[in-house]
Write a structure and sequence with these properties.
Layout: H1 8-11, H2 19-36, H3 46-49, H4 52-72, H5 79-94, H6 104-132, H7 134-144, H8 159-184, E1 192-193, E2 196-197, H9 198-205, H10 230-237, H11 252-256, H12 275-278, H13 284-306
Antiparallel strand pairs: 1-2
Helix pairs in contact: 5-8, 6-7, 6-8, 7-13
Length: 308
């Protein structure tokens, strides 16, 4: 029954708010203020942590846990099913394959790295589609409606978006796993720390919870062309830069596809949607309902102006 406890989010290394990741982010924040000598009063202000938007994040986090646990997760196809289908397809069309080139440790490293890179790439693609396809943007606006940022803003995601990311995860992990099973059989495994892909753990420790915060922690202009820093994700949340920094962990996708923005290029950050839109995202019910309402209104507008 431990899996049914919301407290699991803070003791599970697979979760963004795992206690070690929280502590590491606090430590990096301490280093940031120590190095920059900037005032940290705003970070401890009740105006930030008790802001109506922050309170909405806290309550929505609790509700979304139950929505995901009891309604969404059962709907998502497993990565194992995808992997089996991919392996079966390759066997049927290409026959048996025997490899004697790579050692076990090399396969271990390749599989771990491949999972991380391909999953991050598909995350970039889906995230960008959520912004560029009007239908999907209505649901993703829920996440961008946060007026202030805190670690639990990460979970301000509409159930429809959660379903899409669930399918993305299963498809990407299953696709890579199926290919590796075909080529390497039972030899595949991953380098793990605390039962999690080592690359995920490393990047989570390096400030993942600062991404949704008001601490503009940067990796510097050179590293930010490879890895997405906390400030780069904060830039993505700013009103004028929704079309920048779609990347999850890696910035190389933004660099390759022209959506990269470095921390040094943006000084002022203003979060949330346009003023006239913000009134639609002030309650839990509105976060869940308004995307559907907006889509219905848009459909009615198109029907009235352009016909069915």
């Amino acid at each position: 029954m431990n899996d049914l406890m919301i407290f699991d989010y803070f003791i599970n290394p697979n979760k963004r708010v795992f206690w070690i990741y929280i502590i590491s982010s606090i430590f990096l924040a301490f280093l940031y203020f120590l190095y920059t000598k900037k005032s940290n009063k705003a970070i401890f202000s009740s105006k930030l942590w008790l802001h109506p938007s922050a309170k909405l994040d806290y309550s929505y986090f609790i509700l979304s846990y139950f929505i995901n646990a009891f309604l969404l997760i059962p709907l998502i196809i497993s990565a194992k099913t995808i992997a089996y289908s991919i392996t079966k397809f390759l066997y049927l069309y290409f026959g048996m394959f025997e490899q004697n080139i790579f050692s076990y440790k090399e396969i271990l490293f390749l599989y771990t790295l491949s999972l991380f890179i391909f999953s991050d790439f598909t995350r970039y693609i889906l995230h960008r589609l959520l912004h560029e396809i009007p239908f999907l943007w209505e649901f993703h606006k829920v996440h961008h409606s946060a007026k202030v940022l805190n670690p639990l803003t990460f979970y301000r995601v509409h159930p429809v978006e959660n379903i899409l990311f669930g399918f993305r995860y299963s498809l990407s992990i299953g696709f890579v796993t199926g290919i590796f099973i075909y080529f390497f059989g039972a030899m595949i495994d991953i380098y793990m720390v605390l039962g999690v892909n080592i690359f995920i753990v490393i990047f989570s420790i390096l400030g993942s919870n600062l991404r949704h915060s008001h601490i503009p922690f940067s990796y510097g202009k050179y590293l930010e062309k490879i890895f997405i820093s906390p400030k780069q994700h904060q830039i993505h949340h700013s009103k004028k830069h929704f079309n920048k920094n779609y990347g999850g962990y890696l910035a190389i996708w933004d660099y390759l596809f022209g959506s990269l923005c470095l921390s040094k290029d943006v000084k002022v950050l203003k979060f949330g949607l346009r003023k006239e839109q913000m009134k639609e995202y002030k309650t839990i019910l509105s976060l869940l309902i308004f995307p559907f309402k907006n889509l219905f209104n848009r459909r009615q507008y198109d029907k009235n102006n352009y016909g069915s």
